[in-house]
Amino acid sequence: MTVRLAQDGTIELEGVCPIEDAEALQRYLIADPQAGVDWRSCAAAHAALVQILLAARSVPRGPPASDFLRAHIEPLLRSRGGVNHPGDRPALK
Amino acid sequence: MNEFIRQFLIESREQIEQATADLLAMEETPDDKGRLDNAFRAFHTLKGGAGIVDFTAMAEAVHAAEDALSDARSGARAITPVLIGDCLRCLDQLAQWLDATERTGDLPKDAEAEARAIVARFARSAGETSAALPGSRPAPEKWAEKLREQYATLGAKARTAIRYTPDADCFYQGLDPLARIAALPGLLAVNVEPASSWLPLDTLDPFACNLVLFALTTSSRSEVIASMGEAVNQCDIDGSLDEKRLDGELLAPAAREVLAEQLLLLGETRAHGAPGRVASAGIVAANVLRNAGLPAAANRIAGALETALAGSEPRYLKEAIETVLGKESLPEVVAPASPATDQQMTRQTLRIDAARIDAIVNLTGELTVAKNSIGHVAKLAQEGGHPLASVLKDRYATLDRLVSELQRSVVEMRVVPLRTVFERFPRMLRELSADLGKPARLVVEGGETEADKAVVEMLFEPLLHVIRNALDHGVESGSTRAARHKPAIATIHMRAGREGEHVLVEVSDDGGGVDVARIRQVALERNLVDAAILAAMSEDEVIDMIFEPGFSTAKEVTGLSGRGVGMDAVRTAVRRLAGEVRVESRAAEGTTVRFTLPYSVMMTRVMIVDAGEQTFGIPLDAVVETLRIDVDSIAPIGGAHAIVLRNRTIPLVTLAGALGLPREERTTAEATIVVTKINGHHGALRVDRIGERMEVMLKPLDGLLGGMRGLAGSTLLGDGSVLLILDLAEVFQ
Description:
The complex is a heterodimer.
Chain A: E1 3-5, E2 11-17, H1 21-31, E3 37-45, H2 47-55, E4 58-59, H3 67-80, E5 83-84
Parallel strand pairs in A: 2-3, 4-5
Antiparallel strand pairs in A: 1-2
Helix pairs in contact in A: 1-2
Chain B: H1 3-28, H2 33-52, H3 56-74, H4 81-104, H5 112-126, H6 142-150, E1 160-164, H7 177-182, E2 187-194, E3 211-217, H8 221-228, E4 235-238, H9 243-250, H10 253-267, H11 274-291, H12 295-310, H13 314-325, H14 330-334, H15 339-346, H16 354-383, H17 388-413, E5 415-417, H18 419-422, H19 425-436, E6 440-445, E7 450-452, H20 453-474, H21 478-483, E8 490-499, E9 502-509, H22 516-525, H23 531-536, H24 539-544, H25 551-557, H26 567-576, E10 580-586, E11 590-598, E12 603-611, E13 614-619, E14 623-630, E15 635-637, E16 640-645, E17 648-654, H27 655-658, E18 670-678, E19 681-687, E20 689-697, E21 711-716, E22 722-726, H28 728-732
């Protein structure tokens, strides 16, 4: 599983996240709308996952491992995002 | 050149002609499955040929067209003007490659890029469902404008904008729209928005795509198309960010040609009438772009024109046009501007009917027999005592017949059907019609009429000018046509037929006819003719002035034409081959341009005349009659002379005088006159003596004599002396 719930309740995205992960991500976010998402190990995310993140106004903790996600998707999520991870820190470069 | 390539060139050209004819027919009758099958087969054969000679780029390009036609056959793809246009462009490219191969003897090395462009074009048109005209394109759309504003900091780097609206069920099809966008070359910025506003997370279907993806890239439109693959169907691609290059890419070759012509025109602005030229060039360029669906570029040209005119600085306009064409692509524009001329020059092979060769083989057999029989006569002469004269006369008659036949057969080998030149026009008209925004169709009749290869090939350029003129000036605008109750689609007829030793070719349009008043006005403005003479001229004579050198220049100033080459060039080309061209026009009904051409350029019947102690030949087809008249009946009119013949006054020219030869001052009471008719005008030529008539092979003059006025060519007489053949039109001028 490339989407999993960490012990602290954070939703972690890891590696290449396929479309199947979208449902799990949605489920976790519905269960805990305040849950933070961490995609620092995410190498790629299917559009379906990005769609969930956008719909949930979630701003994952980054930066993600993928250049594309970091350069183009992360700023979008930030500009739209309303729900931040409580322990969110400035992105580490 | 190796034999494979030689054969490949011949066969490919035939297939291209075949495919072009089929494609154009498909446009008329898209339901004609037979034509579609034929075109498909032609492309298939072309691909096979390319494979045999190992021409990979061509095979790829043709393969793309073949695929598209294959889809059209299965119904997966609609037969649209775009599809047909793409196929035709592909054929154009092939023809250029073939020409290059013929010139260099080797396959073109750098054809890959062009092949890729063709493949990309088919990929693009696969996604277009609308039947828009080729080359047309909507104005920059709002979303693209917005995107550009949003990412204004990217500036000029952002060449192409993409809006990608994937199908809602695309996830089920295994697609990842985001991955598609991520894979775009030169990606600068991405935006993702919901297609319809976001539902609460708990009611959202995670597997239904509700995304619209936007992107800006540094790549060109075609690169984007290639990268998006089949997803291009769900994309809007806006290249107005990259107009400079894109305009050039989108313009049809004919439009580019017209723009290039305007640049040439602007290059000569120091001449008299410069503001007129600049205005004309600017208006033409803007109109071409507007008709090509590039209103923004057209507006830029119009703006540059104003600046140029205000400051008398044509350079602004020149730069604007160059920008549209893309400076680096200029040489390219100039080169394919005359693909046809190129073809004429390089196409040196003739396909000859085997029966014609057989006839010549038989003739050589008979000639051998005749030669032997003359040997026999020589032997008889040696022995003496025989009535040689009658035997020689008999043998001469045989030889004469055989040589004539041989000559005719050889001439016939050079004979080709006019179809070979006519076939190129439906295609040209299609493009011109799109460029000028005037719908028109071409009806070709008599393509099987034959003429000498030289005549047929010479015809291309003149016919092109005439057709261009017909569409540009003859055919009225849509509203005028409607007001005159004419069909919206103009018809241009191209007819050919044989008439005795002549071939007639006619181009007629159903347009507004020649504007006679305008010609009078322009002729006066340009000082082509004296006002008093002009007033006395008949309508036909006035119309004929469009063939005057100098008139064409006037046309550009008045905006009558966008081309730098005028009708005088047409007449010169036709006359070079002893042909003639005339225009008939009926106001509001149409114009007919009629070419009268020799069937063969090789044989000319001439009449021998003496003048100033020299012998000349006069083309017999210009001679109406010969007569002897009383010297007293020659009346001086001003500085010239004239005679009255059957109540008609005919200008008289003394040949020796006209050629600057010593006049033979014989005190004869009678003058020998040859009455001629050239371009419909009678003229009387006073000569010293009229000799025999004969058939000669006319050789055009070259070298020092080439530029000499009054001479059409030369031929060798039986005694080895040279006979100069007169050009009567020039003698009478």
